[in-house]
């Protein structure tokens, strides 16, 4: 069985120990590093084989968002899940822009955290219902008020690619996109790769940022 190496970062000892305890009996997840701040995260990812970082947003010194940006520069292979006591549109937007693949409230149950780790490890995004609702409510308000960001690359993306991009941006897996559009998983993957090349995206998080900024998501 392929195992997922996880780093846990939070400045509160009880939170760190709680996350470690939640993951301790999950057969395909190993907590290989536990740290208390962003500086220690950067040090750990350069000295250990880390697949997924589960990290608090509001740590002293380097915040989780600042740390996520550095991780993406140092090793973009590593997936990042941000955890927060406060879930609002501004923090979520900053989280997405930092390159995080997941964003969860700190009161999420074990099953959601485990699902999130497995999902981002496979290259997908993971936002729970609460976070997704906030993101799209914010987008809806923006569209109703007429505030439209620039969309220089809209015309370069085909209609089918827009359909794929919409579903990806909603957090759907390749299999779910394929089932929804009645196409193969391989075709979904091909569309994803074509879109990423056209808009110069490096990750799935970049696709979501592009969709939000260019209003390519139909509510």
UniProtKB/TrEMBL annotation:
Pfam families: GerE, Response_reg. Residues 5-121 form the Response regulatory domain. The modification 4-aspartylphosphate is found at residue 56. InterPro entries: CheY-like_superfamily, NreC/VraR/RcsB-like_REC, Sig_transdc_resp-reg_C-effctor, Sig_transdc_resp-reg_receiver, Tscrpt_reg_LuxR_C, WalR-like. Keywords: DNA-binding, Phosphoprotein, Transcription, Transcription regulation. Residues 150-215 form the HTH luxR-type domain. Signal peptide: none annotated. PROSITE patterns: HTH_LUXR_1, HTH_LUXR_2, RESPONSE_REGULATORY. Gene3D superfamilies: 3.40.50.2300. PANTHER family: NITRATE_NITRITE RESPONSE REGULATOR PROTEIN NARP (PTHR43214:SF41), TWO-COMPONENT RESPONSE REGULATOR (PTHR43214). This is Response regulator transcription factor. It comes from Agaribacillus aureus.
């Amino acid at each position: 069985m392929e195992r997922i190496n996880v780093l846990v970062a939070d400045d509160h000892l009880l939170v760190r120990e709680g996350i470690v305890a939640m993951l301790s009996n999950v057969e395909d997840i190993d907590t290989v590093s536990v740290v208390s701040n962003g500086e220690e995260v950067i040090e750990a990812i350069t000295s250990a084989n880390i697949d997924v970082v589960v990290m608090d947003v509001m740590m002293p010194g380097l915040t989780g968002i600042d740390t996520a940006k550095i991780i993406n520069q140092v090793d973009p292979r590593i997936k990042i899940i941000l955890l927060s006591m406060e879930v609002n549109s501004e923090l979520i937007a900053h989280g997405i822009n930092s390159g995080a693949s997941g964003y969860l409230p700190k009161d999420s149950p074990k099953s959601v955290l485990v699902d999130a780790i497995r999902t981002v490890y496979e290259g997908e995004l993971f936002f729970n219902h609460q976070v997704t609702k906030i993101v799209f409510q914010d987008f809806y308000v923006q569209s109703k008020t007429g505030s439209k960001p620039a969309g220089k690359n809209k015309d370069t993306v085909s209609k089918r690619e827009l359909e794929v991009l919409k579903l990806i941006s909603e957090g759907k897996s390749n299999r779910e996109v394929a089932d929804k559009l009645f196409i193969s998983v391989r075709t979904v993957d091909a569309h994803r790769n074509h879109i990423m090349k056209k808009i110069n995206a490096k990750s799935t998080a970049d696709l979501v940022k592009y969709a939000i900024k260019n209003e390519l998501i139909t509510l």
